[in-house]
Amino acid sequence: MDCIWDTRSRLCFVLLFGNLLSSFVSVHGLNLWPMPKSANHGSNTIYLSTNFQLSTHGSNYSDGSGLLKEAFERMVNLIEADHTTNSKFPNYSVLAGVNVAVQSPDDTLNFGVDESYYLNVPAKGSAFYAQIEAKTIFGALHALETFSQLCYFNFTTKVVELHAAPWTINDLPRFPYRGLLIDTSRHYLPVPVIKSVIDSMTYSKLNVLHWHIVDDQSFPLEVPSYPKLWNGAYSYSERYTINDAIEIVRYAERKGVNVLAEIDVPGHTLSWGFGYPSLWPSKSCREPLDVSNEFSFKVIDGILSDFSKVFKFKFVHLGGDEVNTSCWTTTPHIKQWLNNHHMNESDAYRYFVLRAQNIAISHGYDIINWEETFNNFGDKLSPKTVVHNWLGSGVAEKVVADGLRCIVSNQDKWYLDHIDANWQGFYTNEPLTNISNPTQQKLVLGGEVCMWGEHIDTSDIQQTIWPRAAAAAERLWTPFDKLAKDPEQVTSRLAHFRCLLNKRGVQAAPLVGFGRQVPSEPGSCYKQ
Amino acid sequence: MDCIWDTRSRLCFVLLFGNLLSSFVSVHGLNLWPMPKSANHGSNTIYLSTNFQLSTHGSNYSDGSGLLKEAFERMVNLIEADHTTNSKFPNYSVLAGVNVAVQSPDDTLNFGVDESYYLNVPAKGSAFYAQIEAKTIFGALHALETFSQLCYFNFTTKVVELHAAPWTINDLPRFPYRGLLIDTSRHYLPVPVIKSVIDSMTYSKLNVLHWHIVDDQSFPLEVPSYPKLWNGAYSYSERYTINDAIEIVRYAERKGVNVLAEIDVPGHTLSWGFGYPSLWPSKSCREPLDVSNEFSFKVIDGILSDFSKVFKFKFVHLGGDEVNTSCWTTTPHIKQWLNNHHMNESDAYRYFVLRAQNIAISHGYDIINWEETFNNFGDKLSPKTVVHNWLGSGVAEKVVADGLRCIVSNQDKWYLDHIDANWQGFYTNEPLTNISNPTQQKLVLGGEVCMWGEHIDTSDIQQTIWPRAAAAAERLWTPFDKLAKDPEQVTSRLAHFRCLLNKRGVQAAPLVGFGRQVPSEPGSCYKQ
């Protein structure tokens, strides 16, 4: 005997057990986020063993680093964190564990690594296993996340159930680059906070943490080659050691998340000069970096040399946006240098960006640059460039028409610091708008939502990110033809996901209203 | 060689090592929160071993439940969570661990348990220990928290240091009751979120979690004696099983935090009737609980009987506030009952509260009631009553003059949902205002800050609580004569504590402005 909840009347309808099983499907619907490529299910309920096991029968992946074991334990903890489960248990339809078979023995997280997976949850047996198959361990991690979202706590029996079995899910991401930007220059974010952001990203299968490390306001990172750079930090303790950076990368990669490091040059660099004042055009005119000074490029080379030992992602971000070159023309020694080299301000901007690109390439990186570089001298950029759109829509189509790669972050829709950008806008922002040529479509690597830090610190970062970032995450993961044309069609599923984030301790804000809204009145999480 | 940070100029002054040690004291000051009763220190820096050990030489406490070991490991994790420490290490002035000597073998968390402690950190030796002495394990837990606040990460050597040793700290709380209210009726708070609130309470030595479990809007808790009560929950999954409640109590008690359960009667009870409609005066007039119906008291008895097996705190909270009795006089069968019993509305309100008190007493509880009960019929309340002030100031003095005990939560200063109540008001709110008689002073058990949940859910609870609750926590812990007369004198120390909370992953908001402010501009945590 059990009951079906009617939220309107708050009555609990008692039904026969058999009815309950199928009715849960209709009550909960298919509440996976993001929606998989294909998911088929039946109508049986099965029970998770309280001694749920990981098995790796048929796997080529040895898990020497413990990555899979750790992910499995994390998943079990998530499933069980919410409620104390009962030791009394049905002795039938008990799922004993999950068997994970990974084809590749390699767990290096390269860009474009195969993230696909197959998940099968049978409906019957006395002690049977769910089956996960994946080309790489990173596909298997996504499968575990999907599996966790199939599990429900039954408040009558107090056991964890899996409804609507058997399940067969085939899944893979639409785009290989699904990013979230954090900004540790405008406000320092402690390492445990960055780790919690990484944790939360994995719940909606985002896979790139774009770390906008430094900017005008502060330079929090230790750079061994130029140890005075972090004199530009806000304070003694608002800093990251290089080992902290290594730890953040290690932590992220073990969860399938790449870390994209950014140094934004030549603008947005005021904080660099606190340690090395000669990087400033002058003491009174303190950015962009002095284009006439070889030391500027030596420092960039030192930073990228250090980065190449820490940030193993294929890309480094070199910024290049919002460069106001007036200090170059008003500072006598730079003005003289421009004259000597027959450059105007635009030439010097291009010269700086391209030279920085070459330095990055010499350290093995492909480069990401903000779109102003493309808008000003797109034909001169290295073919290794990925153009990062932000100013508005319509840029990606131009970039890929020119044969370059692109990442979409148009600020009107995908800037999380725009509090008036609602989740519906995040959901409907389509990276391939006006791009129909399949070759050009492939040049759009994906997109990224940006959590700029002017008004963001530990106190408000997570509720400003979530649930809006999750709306974009489905756009980036789910096949186009499975995406809702009208975002209101996914409201209840996204609300369900936001409540799931809450249960996992993530401070995801209500859906109603704009970003970071506080609840407007008492009510259910699922309705707010 | 190292540097002293000048936040204004962002310059790092190089000093000889010996200078550094003493200068850290002036840079960081005495940044403990709350301020201990007495703290003396020297000027030496010592280093925490990377293999920091717990020892219990001379302790009578066997730690059979692992409570101390767990607390020690938690503390080490907190100290080390922020930055990766270096394996290279000085071979002198290394603190090998902490020795904890507890007098009492008992780790039952009774109300008024001795929370005092003595902490000594020596300055010299080759492999020496800090010494903690406490009457009970709960004093020792506070000592570990204080110890953790003495530790700093050195960004040059990458080791954890303890500055200004030797330290001798004698400490004990001013009030035995230092509470925080959470409200799971207006919005459901998942169990992991409640646990994270409990964690954060221990950082400022709060020791009572007042769990306002149910109210008009929802009844989320399973009550085994009356299993339909939680039909009044918002939804199927926004509920706590009785085992969840047991787990919350267990979790809190292991950290020295008592859980005060509240059922607010006879008002604030609309949600009760979804499961048992006869508790409503009528279907159209649904609160207070039907005073004429014996079933109302049977249900209260059942709840408190179940509570007595779960909530082992000396007190249960029976509410009693904001009772609008109009449904009693407009519902014919109740009106008739009132007439039969020669009661008016006030009489019936008193009758209900006193009868509920007697039920609680029969289950072994002392009772806490909101102040309206005292304001209306204070002379009739059980001597086991603690009056919970909330409407305004000036109540405690009347309560204790009448020989009853009191808890202070005047809403103008200590209601966290009052977003316009600033931390300065939380800090300066004095529970003993106008109470000079020592016997009467002892009747003020302490105070409580209240996080009512109308606009609070997982997304915004922690930054609405912190740092303002911490300001009240010092008022409740620190001896009166060590409290700042002008709150601005503690601004930088409180800012330091708020940044410490952030480093520990707690979403404490900026100090500047009112409650739950987002950062107004880029800047250092220590300045916002």
TrEMBL record, chains A, B:
EC number: 3.2.1.52
Domain Beta-hexosaminidase eukaryotic type N-terminal: 32-150
Residue ranges crossing the lipid bilayer per the database entry: none
GO BP terms in the entry: carbohydrate metabolic process; glycosaminoglycan metabolic process
The keyword NAD belongs to this UniProt entry's keyword annotation: no
Active site per the UniProt annotation: E322
UniProt GO MF annotations: beta-N-acetylhexosaminidase activity
Signal peptide: none
Reactions listed under catalytic activity: Hydrolysis of terminal non-reducing N-acetyl-D-hexosamine residues in N-acetyl-beta-D-hexosaminides
Keyword Glycoprotein recorded: yes
Homology family: Belongs to the glycosyl hydrolase 20 family.
Name of this chain's protein: Beta-hexosaminidase
